[in-house]
TrEMBL record:
The lineage of its organism: Bacteria, Pseudomonadati, Pseudomonadota, Gammaproteobacteria, Lysobacterales. It comes from the Bacteria. It comes from Tahibacter soli. Signal peptide: none annotated. Keywords: Hydrolase. It holds the Pfam family HAD_2. GO terms for cellular component: cytosol. SUPFAM superfamilies: HAD-like. This is HAD hydrolase-like protein. InterPro entries: HAD-like_hydrolase_sf, HAD-like_sf, HAD_2, HAD_sf, PGP-like_dom2. The keyword Hydrolase applies. One of its GO terms (molecular function) is phosphoglycolate phosphatase activity. One of its GO terms (biological process) is DNA repair.
Length: 210
C-alpha cells in the first residue's frame, strides 16, 4: 500500500531549475522596486534565510510583494525557454501517476509559465494551484486536497523553501524538503526538518514505498 494518495509540489526550485534565472534577474528586481541590493558574495548565506527575514533584509514593503510577483512572472514568461525541469523530474512524475498517486502543483508562478516549462509532463498533473501569494500557499494546498478528494493525512507536500513546510504544517499534511533548490539543505536541518531528498527519484520512494 502506498504511503500517500496526493503529492503537492512546489514548482520553482522543486520541479523547475530556476535558481540561476532568479539570480540573474535579482539586480533588475532590486533596481525596479528600490530595494537594498544583496551582496552577490553572500548569495549562499541568503539561501539559508527564511523568506520573511530575506525580504526584510532587502527592505521590501508588504504592499510591494504583489507587484514583485507580477514582475517576476512577466520576466519568466519572456525567458521561459532558458528554464528546464530538473533531471529526473518527468520520469518521477510519470512513475507517481502510474502508481495511482494524484499530483498537484501549488506555486506563486503563473499557470502559463508552469505549463510551458512542464511541457509533456503537465499531463501527469491533476490540479494546478497557481498565482499564490508568497505566503498564501495554505489556501491553494487546501484547494488541491478538496479538488482531488484526498485527506491531509494522505497528502505529502514537497518543496524547496521553509515557507513550503509552513504551508504543509498549516493544513495538516506531511512535508519533505528537496536539497537541489533555493534553500540550502543545512537550513532545513537547522529548522528541525528531516534531511532533504537528494534526487527526484527519492520523491517516488518517499511517497509510494511502504
Amino acid at each position: 500500500m502506498r504511503r500517500y494518495d496526493l503529492v503537492v509540489f512546489d514548482f520553482d526550485g522543486t520541479l523547475a531549475d530556476s535558481l540561476g534565472w532568479f539570480r540573474r534577474i535579482l539586480p533588475d528586481v532590486e533596481a525596479t522596486f528600490g530595494l537594498r541590493p544583496l551582496d552577490p558574495a553572500q548569495f549562499d548565506a541568503h539561501r539559508s534565510m527564511p523568506a520573511r527575514a530575506l525580504i526584510a533584509k532587502m527592505g521590501v514593503r508588504w504592499w510591494q510583494l504583489p507587484g514583485i510577483a507580477r514582475y517576476a512572472r512577466r520576466r519568466m514568461s519572456a525567458e521561459a525557454a532558458t528554464i528546464a525541469l530538473f533531471d529526473g523530474v518527468p520520469a518521477m512524475l510519470s512513475r507517481l501517476r502510474d502508481a495511482g498517486v494524484r499530483l498537484a502543483v501549488v506555486t506563486t508562478n503563473s499557470e502559463a509559465n508552469v505549463l510551458r516549462i512542464l511541457g509533456d509532463a503537465a499531463a501527469c498533473i491533476d490540479h494546478f494551484g497557481c498565482g499564490a501569494a508568497m505566503f498564501g500557499k495554505k489556501r491553494h494546498t487546501r484547494a488541491a486536497m478538496r479538488a482531488t478528494g484526498v485527506a491531509p493525512a494522505r497528502t505529502l507536500c514537497v518543496g524547496d523553501e521553509l515557507r513550503d513546510a509552513d504551508a504543509a504544517r498549516a493544513v495538516g499534511a506531511d512535508f519533505v524538503p528537496v536539497g537541489w533548490g533555493y534553500t540550502l539543505p543545512s537550513a532545513f536541518e537547522a529548522a528541525g526538518h528531516a534531511a532533504p531528498l537528494d534526487t527526484p527519484a527519492r520523491i517516488f520512494d518517499r511517497a509510494v514505498a511502504p
